[in-house]
Specification:
Number of helices: 15
Radius of gyration: 21 Å
CATH topology: TIM Barrel
CATH architecture: Alpha-Beta Barrel
Order of helices and strands: HHHHHEHEHHEHEHEEHEHEHEHH
Number of domains: 1
CATH class: Alpha Beta
Helix content: 25-40%
Number of strands: 9
Amino acid sequence: MLAKSIAVSLALAQFASAAEYWESFKSQVNPKNISIPSIPQTTSYDEVTQCTYYEASNFQFVESEWPTPWETATSNGMNKSAEFKALYNSINWGNMPNISARTMGADGAIDMSGYDESNDPDCWWSATTCTVPKHKDVNPDIYTCPEPETWGLTYDDGPNCSHNAFYDFLEEQKLKATMFYIGSNVVDWPVGAQRGVKDGHHIADHTWSHQMMTTLSNEEVLAELYYTQKAIKMVTGVTPRHWRPAFGDVDDRVRWIATQLNLTTVLWNLDTDDWAAGASEPVSQVQGNYEDFIKMGSNGTFATSGNIVLTHEIDNMTMQMAIDYLPQIKKNYKNVLDVATCMNITTPYMENSVKFAPFGKTSTTSSVVTAAGSATSASASSSDSAQTANKESSASKVSATSALALALIVAIFA
């Protein structure tokens, strides 16, 4: 009993504040010095070869330490671990918006019956596409690039095991995107995730198992985000400050939980529907979406602000569509870049040593990774500093003394 109490005490003390959780992750990877191994999986364009299992030299997946891939992140007993309990108990749940988890209907869709869509008290995106949170202590969404004639380049659901040709193309075109990585994919294909960082892309969290987040319990939402953060950090050496909910399904309860991890929600204002091409949508319809959005770059639609476009790394069709249309996108838009850069966020990770060049600037120094694919020693912009300050102020914090006191209570009543 005493040994158990001491272990719990130490775990709780480790998370004196939920906002500091990432500091406990000990990665073997230096994000500023990643070397991609020359193996068939990283050099071939053959899908079967690329998607053949391998083990990374700098990341070892120990099954007992992680949720079961592609299952809710509380699986495999993760919600009972001292590590997760410490995180959960460091959060002041009394400050969370009083919003219940949603339910799924018999048709497999979220049940929206009874929800007041007119007033939309919970800023529930799935019901109203709301992007301006209505509750306090919630990080505001990012859903469009403020710079005129700017295409915010984002790809969901990576790292895809067969993305070599796609990433090579982005590198050849000197394009950087915001890559929303699924935690299960990161641990399955670690070198693929490492290449995303090495190539200078902006890496963000896309949950562990890609579920409707508003239908999950508080514990499940926290686990989906936390274990993806951990996976990305352990595999790539960086911890994201940004995340995107699967299907855009987010409300102020889920946003508040994400805020406790210093995560800001990134949505979009244009959707290609590329993931549905050839399935629920004709390929021609998705091609038409691309073509319509491309025209908006030169017809004045984005003369005063830009967009953020939802596209996917999910399969070879979506990646090939990106390759096909990106040259036209570049011709019609003044800027084609990742979300961090379009928002002038120079420190998109918890690790402030990894910096991106400010919007519109590049550097030829070699001290840190940049969104321009080069390196920069520029300090964080004023807007970046303000956003960081906002995140720190909005994340609920408890002192180390409080965490230890809670640990003693657990020890006494365990």
